[in-house]
Automatic annotation (TrEMBL):
This is Aminopeptidase S. GO terms for molecular function: aminopeptidase activity; metal ion binding; metalloexopeptidase activity; serine-type endopeptidase activity. SUPFAM superfamilies: Galactose-binding domain-like, Zn-dependent exopeptidases. It comes from Allocatelliglobosispora scoriae. The keyword Protease applies. GO terms for biological process: proteolysis. Residues 427-543, 546-662 form the P/Homo B domain.
């Protein structure tokens, strides 16, 4: 929750004539259309264990990034990616929304997630700010709210109930700087979209160690929905109006555009009264003694009881207002299994089952979207009656690009339409290495991913695994570059070093021996500043690099390539027994303005020549490529040379670096 001094400063400025400030008027509390009582489905428990696991992850992300998750930091970016990845995997439609005006320079994006289904003209939103202050990791303020909303969303996805109304979830940037991320979102909404949002529920500091039970705008229709949970389950608890938090969190941004709001809080820096101690327990000290301080850490600054009830109150509101079986004929749809992997050129199957949930059966036509190029989906049969099932077969071609793809299965009935998610993984070529040379644009203040899928590689990766990176960018000090393993583990390769230097062209050696080799690996690049942009040019991942000591080497010394000349760059290998491998690699980085001029050759210690590039590529710039060469007849030890001949005039360049792995 933002500090009250920001609001006080604005009021003071208005009173002294500095600016005409219109303070928000509370939105009119119009009735909220809940699901018909006969159609309400049982509200699930929001797992405290899972919510606390999210808290532990946010703490770990802060600890790894300067002990803060402020909106402009790498800790915030890591938090965004954690939430984003969880939601995408669960089947949400997720957007990282850049705050393009009004936010702090360098602030990361909002995260907006929509669950499919429900009446799109009746939207219920649940949100929390994702950022912290600079002073600490922000575990109660506000990883507690962020974790609660995240687990609420994941529970909705896991139970996959019929939706009467539409559910949307949000995690806000720059709240601590003045509610800036939510203001940007709310103020950017067209009038028609604003009117669709029937209520916004905010969760900010919901686990204060000396906490109370507060509801924002408790007398509003939205507030009464939350209060009903506490009154029913904890008679005598008597939650109170959140006076301390009024206008200080993201619900204010929605209230100012006329959207009904409410939410849950447990208190910040105000003191608990003796009357509150009598009914809630605790002491008469601050609700959160670590408010905006470095001691706001996990698990010491979390009240499990208050946190658990906040999550269940949120679920009560969501299930009351958005979940339910519409009147008339309806059905549900599910995929089993909900994920599968396939080698290019092969197929994979899943059973798509439907169930009658209300009224009479209807004919349901099945379709699939989100497939990669070269993949097709078929259903046998193509349509079913409610309660029937069909076999989904996804066929690929040899040209289907390896990767992981979220596929949406849609059942279109005569009276209702529903979707379910299926995750398709297209395996990479057999082996323990892969290259992705598809350019990925890196815009200012964004995070982008480039995947490589490894399959057919036994066991774990090697302790000497390598990541050969080629990123074109005009200010590499803006960048953080991570390798993300299939299980989500993050290995940082580059962390905002290098200042104004151009481009990252480097091979990193990473100990990945604890990681299973097969799966989708991601090169993740975060640009957290303005002014300079670029793109991921190519990258290569080699996981079977348990290389004997001395059996690889790199020469990073620039060697100028003038017109019509031949130059050499040597690497000397020693202390390595036997012959080289049949799958030895030569990672080459040559800067040149016309690669059709060049012949590039690897020269073995005995003088044998292995041509890597022979005047191909025409007028294209630069050779950044890893070549696999059968060197099994060559003794490893000795001096190897990368020989480059420029066979024409006008265009020149230099050998930037090269790496030999034998």
């Amino acid at each position: 929750m933002r500090n009250r001094t920001i609001l006080r400063g604005l009021v003071a400025l208005a009173l002294t004539g500095g600016v005409a400030l219109a303070l928000p008027t509370p939105a009119t509390s119009a009735p909220i259309a809940a699901a018909p009582q006969a159609a309400l489905l049982a509200t699930p428990d929001i797992s405290l264990t899972n919510t606390k696991a999210h808290l532990a992850q946010f703490q770990a992300l802060a600890s790894a990034n300067g002990n803060t998750r402020r909106s402009t930091t790498a800790g915030y970016t890591a938090s965004v990616n954690y939430v984003y990845d969880k939601l995408v995997a669960a089947g949400f439609s997720v957007v990282k929304q850049p705050c393009t005006s009004g936010c702090t320079s360098g602030a990361g994006p909002n995260v907006i997630a929509d669950w499919p289904g429900g009446d799109a003209n009746n939207v219920y939103m649940f949100g929390a700010h994702l950022d912290s202050v600079s002073a600490g990791p922000g575990i109660n303020d506000n990883a507690s709210g962020s974790s609660t909303v995240l687990e609420l969303a994941l529970t909705l996805a896991a139970t996959n109930p019929a939706m009467l109304n539409h559910a949307r979830f949000a995690w806000w940037t720059d709240e601590e700087q003045g509610l800036l991320g939510s203001k940007f979102y709310a103020n950017s909404l067209p009038t028609a979209e604003r009117t669709k949002i029937k209520a916004y529920f905010n969760f900010d500091m919901v686990a204060s160690t000396n906490g109370g039970y507060f509801i924002n705008r408790i007398t509003s229709a939205a507030g009464q929905t939350l209060k009903a949970y506490y009154d029913t389950n904890f008679p005598g608890l008597a939650p109170e109006e959140n006076v301390e938090g009024a206008g200080r969190s993201d619900d204010a941004s929605f209230n100012s555009i006329g959207v009904q709001t409410s939410g849950v809080a447990a208190g910040a820096s105000a003191n608990k009264t003796s009357a509150q101690v009598t009914k809630w327990g605790g002491t008469t000290g601050d609700y959160d003694p670590c408010y905006h301080a470095s001691c706001d850490t996990n698990p010491s600054n979390i009240n499990d009881t208050v946190l658990n009830r906040a999550g269940d109150a949120a679920a009560h509101a969501l299930w009351t207002l958005a979940v339910g079986t519409p009147a008339g004929n309806d059905f549900s749809i599910a995929a089993s299994p909900s994920a599968g992997s396939v080698n290019p050129g092969s197929s994979v199957s899943s059973t798509i089952s439907t169930a009658l949930t209300n009224g009479s059966a209807q004919t349901i036509t099945l379709s699939a979207s989100g497939l990669p190029s070269g993949a097709t989906a078929s259903f046998a049969p193509g349509s079913v009656s409610s309660g029937g099932s069909s076999t989904l077969t996804i066929a690929t071609t040899g040209a289907t690009t390896p990767g992981t793809y979220p596929v949406t299965i849609t059942g279109t009935g005569t009276a209702a339409t529903h979707t379910t998610a299926y995750t398709l993984t297209v395996n990479g070529p057999p082996g323990c290495s892969g290259t992705n040379s598809t350019d990925v644009t890196i815009s200012d203040n964004t995070t982008v991913d480039s995947p490589i899928t490894i399959s057919g590689c036994s066991g774990n990766a090697g302790a000497g695994s390598t990541v050969a990176v080629n990123i074109v960018h005009t200010y590499i000090g803006d960048l953080k570059v991570d390798l993300v393993a299939p299980d989500g583990s993050v290995y940082t390769l580059h962390n905002h070093t290098g200042g104004s230097a151009d481009n990252i062209v480097q091979t990193y050696t990473v100990n990945l021996s604890s990681e299973v080799a097969n799966g989708t690996w991601i090169l993740r690049v975060n640009d957290n500043a303005g002014g300079d942009v670029g793109y991921i040019n190519t990258w290569t991942l080699t996981l079977n690099s348990v290389v004997p000591p001395g059996c690889s080497g790199t020469n990073g010394t620039d060697v100028t390539i003038p017109d019509n000349t031949t130059v050499n760059s040597p690497i000397t290998i020693s202390g390595c027994t036997g012959n080289a491998s049949a799958t030895s690699t030569v990672a080459v980085n040559i800067v040149h303005t016309y690669i059709g001029d060049l012949i590039v050759t690897l020269v073995a210690p005995d003088g044998s020549l292995y041509v890597l590039h022979n005047r191909a590529g025409g007028s294209a710039d630069n050779i950044v490529q890893t070549y696999t060469v059968n060197l099994s007849t060559e003794v490893r030890n000795g001096t190897w040379n990368l020989r480059v001949q420029d066979a024409a005039t006008t265009d020149t360049g230099y050998i930037n670096s090269w790496t030999l792995t034998l």
